[in-house]
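re the bet — no i am not wrong, look at it urself. input seq straight from the record:
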Amino acid sequence: MYSGLASDNQGSRTEHLRLWNEFNLCWLAVLQRQKDDTHQMIDSGQPPGAPQNLLPEAFLERMAEALVSLCDGMEKYGLVDYQMGVWEEEIMS
């Protein structure tokens, strides 16, 4: 399933690196925004204004479980915590 994305074929390497970089940066951006909004709410004592909303804790837990499950399936292809693959450790920290 993931073998094409693990390929070091020089013709597709640049595209694969871009895909993985964008995938990982999207995860990090969503979680950084959640962290920033949470700190703002704590500092101000006010919930974020519309259209900003905090993600419910249960939703964040499901996101984490989905990421771990995805990484478990991709680990055998060497696609976890490397430049080409999911930055699981960085995302989960």
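see?? The mean pLDDT is 86. told u. also The chain has four helices and no strands. so pay up
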